Amino acid sequence: MTVEKHLKLTGISNISWKDAITKTISEASRTIDYISSVTVLEQKAKVDGNKIIEYYSTIELTFSIDSNRE
What we know:
The protein is α+β, with helices and mostly antiparallel strands. The chain has one domain (4-64): Dodecin subunit-like. It has one helix and three strands; from the N terminus they run βαββ. A three-stranded antiparallel β-sheet has the order 1-3-2. The two termini are 16 Å apart. The model has no long low-confidence stretch (mean pLDDT 94).
């Protein structure tokens, strides 16, 4: 039987929303195995004057639970 877990994470970048997503997945994969999908839930930005200075991407990671792990 396969069991999947869902984890909600928010990444921040000063480059782009895509960069925030990529960095969040990369960081999460350092400690989470078997990541199978990502869903973008929300994108926001911090604005200073007329320029975006930070991009926020909230994602849901899906990964399988290792049933053989003790």
